[in-house]
Amino acid sequence: MSYWNPDNVRDVAESVGISSLGDDVLQSLSRDVEYRLSQVLEEALKFMRHSKRTVLSTQDISQALRVLDVEPLYGYESTRPLRFGEASLGPGQPLFYVEDEEVDFEKLINAPLPKVPKEISFTAHWLAVEGVQPSIPQNPSSTDSRSSDLVSKAAGATTGLASISGNDNATIKPLVKHILSKELQIYFERISLAILDESNEDYRIAAFSSLRSDPGLHQLVPYFVQFISEKVTHGMKNLFVLTQMMHLASAILDNESLFIEPYIASIIPPILTCLVGRRLGDPSQPLSHYPLRDLAASLILLLTKKYAQSSHTLKPRLARTFLKHFLDPYKPLGVHYGAICGLQAIGGPEVIRVLVIPNLKAWEAVVRDESAGGEKEMVIKAVLRAVGSLEDESRRGMVNGFSEAGAEEMREKLMESVGEVIGGRIWELENMGLVKAVLECAGS
Amino acid sequence: MGVDAPILYHRTYPLSSRLTYLYIPSTLFSVIEYLSKKGYSRTEAMLRMESANTDREGRPLIQRAEDLGGDKYFKAFELARGWIEENLDIYKPELKRILYPLFIYSYLNLLADCYKNESQKFFNAYKDLFIRTHESDLRVLNTLSLPEHVNSNNIAQVYRTNKYRVTLSPQAYYNLLQFLEAKDREGGTIVLSILQHHCNIRTAERGGASGSSLSLIGAALGQGLKDEDVLAEDEGIPGHNPGSANMTDSSSTVLVRLRLGHLPMDPDLASDVQNELQDLDAKNPPGEGQNTLVQEFETHIKREQSDDTPSREDMPLPPYTARDVAMEVQKVRENRDRFKIEGKTGGTGPGLSVVMFTWHNTYDSINCLDFSEDNLFAAAGTSESYIRVWSLEGRALQSILPQAADTTPLSSSRRLIGHSGPIYAVSFSPSAKNEDPDPIWPSTAPRYLVSCSADKTVRLWSLDTWTNLVIYKGHDDPVWDVTWCPFGYYFLTGSHDKTARLWSTDHISFLRMFAGHDQDVDTVCFHPNSVYVFTGSSDKTVRMWSIQTGSTVRLFTGHTGNLTSIACSPDGKTLASAADDGFIILWDLASGRRLKVMRGHSKGGIWSLSWSVESSVLVSGGADGTVRVWDVAVGNEASGPQGKVIAEGGAGTKIDGGATGAQGGSAAGGTAGVANANAGGGGKKKGKEVVVTPDQISAFPTKKSPIYKVKFTRKNLVVAGGAYLP
């Protein structure tokens, strides 16, 4: 009930000669003692506050007693918090006392003088320079755990200054900790194991179908994106891994319930790597990587279809990348293949007409070299496929029927405009509509 | 119970069997049977009525909550609380505000009625509801346990001798009354009697301009929405009328008009200063895009000639000297060359620079710090009763007194010894930095230091001789704070004896005593025109006093912690006050209303506040070891006119500042909108987490150094001081 033990009151009463004290009186007196003590403490708190301290000291108590016209307690003056020892008088009867070491007078006199305490001094430093706290040893480091409660978390707060003041981004440490539930973590682990499991196809298929359709995976998207780019960067030699990563990317792109848009920028680089990478897979099997490039190209197609609307710089940036690779004659054939596929994927016939056909003649040097047989064929096929896409569009409005002489003339023109290798191949297709379309582009 | 029954038994049965019959219902039944048989129909009816109010054991049934003894307050409080919790959301926040007075007065009544155990139980059961807002009062009241304590404790007395003021909207109030009357037997009457005896419930339509129910909520909550954290402006003990220093209803709408303009300069002094400035301009022509000093000075003078300037007679100052001319010249120069703060732009505030001075090896003995206005000196008052003054540039501190012949080099710091108790405040007299010292000009360095101490004295120290010049005695208790008038000559003290006093350096007794606070005057400051002074007290109010009359002209209530620092803006229109619960509140002086509440510091005291020269930015420093920068404008742009001048007469204009009446209503609507916007952006979070309001521009933490003093220089650089406490 009351914190103050009534026995103390009884002891004091006995010490002044009152031996019998009624229980009610005792209770009342102990309550009163408690109240008076709290009054002293209240006063002492004022002194503490005005000393700009947050720890109550014995001096505050003496000052408070003085103000309350009570004689101060002597012998407790200390600038440091007092240490209390505990002794037990019996079960549940602890006694607290101030530890007071016995000092041997002899020793004290003969002991060397204690060191003079250090002089109070001051130092100056910049706490902030034009609103930014410089990171110097005198200032707390921004990784200090406190820094997050310094800035207003409310919307519309003055975040601009907070961010430049180095409170948040000196070390890249997310302000909001992303907490992933245990289930999701396990799911992520399982999925990443499953899709890299070469031996068990069913397992892989199940994983992809889950990724394609599961609605609750949004939290994992950044992790998967990270996973893809990591695996692609470190697994350039392993076609299986690369292919699985492309499948993974396509799966999360397919999932309708995921909002991928913010991650497009980070998902594109690995796909590009698989499309126009210099060396993919085992160099002893030169043709093995072409299916991967096809897959990547189709992903690019999907991406541009879906997201070109919302990100209007997406297509031009991709086009620039592909064209650069396409026009560089020193790149391996695989890169050229990828670039052509990519160009076709991002823009279809329009891009082929504007970017590919006019450059075909100059580019032909790449495939004129006889050495790389199979690969060359692949690249030429890619070009033909790209050029072929022109025809679908140009077929309408075509006039059938023309003379042999006209044909010969046309052939010459074709060779002239797109070069002999490609021109010959186009001619071999015996598709006059296509030839005409190509000539139109080249001429314009 | 009626008086008939015993007589009845007496008459019918022998006394010996009476008790037996009374307590056994079955026997009672046979008695009734007997009576009806004998045809004593009236007696029988009476007996039936009587027995209806007893339970099976024959003890009287308690039907009225009043008869429950000490438990009645539990029941009543539960009743009110339950009803309020169930109430419509639009009324809930305002109705919740009656719970606190209900709680406090129930508790005090329990104590006064000697229900010791019940009072403790009651207190512990419900204190958590209020501990966030009323921590310090609850801490004191919790210690009461005897009726005598209630009568002797000053906080309990403040509550019991004043009526707690709450403003409710009429709808909510009538709903409440209706409910209480309907539930009169279950405790309604108890609640009602507390409300009648101890509360002053005012009804005010707070609908604001639009009048829709939604804005009503906004308005009601406007002050109160952040209700969990902040008290309504007009709520509390002694509930003053917002925007007024008056505590009675009758005069609530009349406010003394304030003269908040700058004190005009002595014309002779002005012309002298102008001549000096002309010379200076000729010597160093202004740089590209700079005003000449004369132009700068003239705009300064013009600004002072508004219609609300006080007259020079209001604040008599000694005749000016060459030093004053030099000081004014310096001030003009510094003002022109300052770092200009153009307010908040584009989502970021001004990029302030803060110099931090950290004291080492103090063992927490430094109680207070001050920097001189020329930024060449710092003084610290210690709990070991001495003052130490340092030269911030590390120069030797010369004395004009003839020195002893010893050749020890002069130190860059000096101790001023004289007080016999811990020193709680030191203050340098006004000074200005002389940037290119001209030997013919008098020194503009600070000449005096005042200090106050637990030994109840204030001492004036000379910085020329480094000796004590005067001891000012008058306060009866430790003196908590002292500050110089912006023009020197006068200084102001606040003390544990609940008074603030105004002194001049050449009188050993005080000139004015400002009495009115219920508790210690913890912090004091001057208005920039020095015709008014402000005091902040442990009674959680801030008062504004007129030096002329010595009376309170404004009273600001709303803080829930002990005031630790106050500062008036240099444009003289706004006051900032800070308390140890981490709140900073801005007040509009003319209307006497609260402008906004700023939060960010954690608990433990905000020891110092300072305004930028333009009055657009406030800095604060406190026990949590951070210097924080606040945007003054954010959150109150929409406030508009808050009080309205309604009549001119006699000494001053009267201003409508009350919440009653149409005009007051719209004013309240205005503030409510502000507070709403604030609350919306602030998104107050519950719990222990420190809330930071969005008007905080930046916060600069130190390494374990509580900030004792922050100060804007005249060039808008911030100087901060603190002690490193590892």
From TrEMBL, chain A:
Its main location: nucleus. The keyword Transcription regulation applies. Belongs to the TAF6 family. One of its GO terms (cellular component) is SAGA complex. The keyword Phosphoprotein does not apply. It comes from Glutinoglossum americanum. Pfam families: TAF, TAF6_C. One of its GO terms (molecular function) is transcription coactivator activity. Keywords: Nucleus, Transcription, Transcription regulation. This is TBP-associated factor 6. One of its GO terms (biological process) is RNA polymerase II preinitiation complex assembly. SMART domains: TAF. The lineage of its organism: Eukaryota, Fungi, Dikarya, Ascomycota, Pezizomycotina. Residues 3-66 form the TATA box binding protein associated factor (TAF) histone-like fold domain.
UniProtKB/TrEMBL annotation, chain B:
GO terms for cellular component: transcription factor TFIID complex. It is found in: Nucleus. Keywords: Nucleus, Repeat, Transcription, Transcription regulation, WD repeat. Residues 70-199 form the TFIID subunit TAF5 NTD2 domain. The keyword Nucleus applies. SUPFAM superfamilies: Taf5 N-terminal domain-like, WD40 repeat-like. Its main location: nucleus. GO terms for biological process: transcription initiation at RNA polymerase II promoter. WD repeats lie at residues 416-465, 472-513, 514-555, 556-597, 606-640. GO terms for molecular function: RNA polymerase II general transcription initiation factor activity. The keyword Nucleus applies. It comes from the Eukaryota. Belongs to the WD repeat TAF5 family. This is TFIID subunit TAF5 NTD2 domain-containing protein. It comes from Glutinoglossum americanum.
